[in-house]
Amino acid sequence: MRGISRRFEILKVLSFFLSLILIIPILYILVYGYTSFYIGSVAFSKALLSSIALTFFSSTIAVIIAIVFFTPLAYYLARHKNPFIETLVDIPASVPHPVVGIALIFLDSPINPLGKFLYDHGIIFYYTYTGLILALFIVSTPVYVRAMQNYFESLPQSYELYARSLGASEFRTYITVILPRAIKGIISAGLTAIARAISEFGSVVLIAPYVTGWIFNGMSTASVFIYDEFLTYFNASITASATLILFSLLLIAVTRIINIILFK
Amino acid sequence: MIEVDVRKSYGNFTLNAKFKASGIIGITGKNGSGKTTLLNIIAGIVKPDLGYVKVNSIDVTNLDISKRNIIFINQDSYIPTLKVMDHLLWGFKVRSMKVDKDKVNEVAKALGVPLNDSDKKVAKLSLGNRIRVALATALLVKPSVVLVDEAFSNIDNKEEFMKAVFTICKREGIDLVFTTQDSHEVMLGNNSYKIEKGTLLEL
User: Fold this and answer.
1) Which of A223, B141, B169, B180 could cysteine-pair with B185, CB 3.0–4.6 Å?
2) Is B97 part of the contact surface with chain A (CB cutoff 8 Å)?
3) B131 shares contact with chain A (CB less than 8 Å)
4) Is residue A233 part of a domain?
5) Number of domains, chain A
6) Could you give the CA distance from residue A216 to residue A218 in angstroms, rounded to a whole number?
């Protein structure tokens, strides 16, 4: 017994160091960004904070759209195994994300019939909030659907089977029995999907490197902003990255705390 | 009248069940003998590998669970989001049936549903009271069959409660199939069966 518990202790220490390896680069930039490489005019500059605000805003909108339209799909996949639809949902998460950006630009281009129709009706993706939110929606929805599917699979089916045997349709059962019990899962999966959307770069840098109009006019998302800083002045990108990491850590902490409160 | 002739295999376990009965049907057997699987097949939760399920001579084997007019109840069968009275009326609502308030009160009283807690959510009731509410809701809509999977064992004054349920079923013409591990309790039905290692035997 002592041998087994000792082996578990070794595994625990090993796991800790392995996870530390994952975050060393991030910790490094956080420490250096706020010490020797600290640039006061960049750390909490209005432009950086606005780009972080735009990132959180657009990611939240994208995930709210995913919650409204894709929660029923996650429930369907949890209750009826459908490898074909599961594959369709996984595709956006599996292709290189610049491809999503290129696809959106092409989709909205007047050189094809659908693009011409959208363009003629004033629906423009390029350099717009619509394009930005659409890109974030496409890359974060698979994460949301899979997380919600796991949550629904973990729920016991007794309530819904009783409702169905009473004669309730699948839709009525979903509204009356499933949705009220899924709030915790929706919040948890939604926060995970927001974290994914916030880190998006590949598609956003192509479709909406900055957005035009409204309160974030001319702003980029944080990932694109940092990339621009990197291209223009490397030292500034270190401090800006440190600030972005702070906000990401804040989101992770909030997600963890909410999960603990919801699932305790 | 329920007519069942089904076969279902899970790995090394095979369930073989054949019976034709009506009224109050009791099925006993040990844990893992196949009682719940048989009820799941009758309810439409599980598909049999072979065979059929007929209710009043109509083959329901391929019908969806919501279209069979068979209500399945175990100890977790209730709508947790509804209050007691809303729960009792929910069956009428989903089936677009006219609410008979006198009948609701009569059945609820007969089954000991805590009507003084009618504003309380069903999830907040004791396990026994939740089963009372679930069964009352089921009996009120007059289904062809009610399946009760070992839920009676969680009720205080079990035999009295079972007799009240059986009386309503007989009056309304509802067939009731219940499972139990208690070899005495199973004899309370007018048709009694035993499942041994997946095979249904008449007692």
Assistant:
1) B180
2) no
3) no
4) yes
5) 1
6) 6
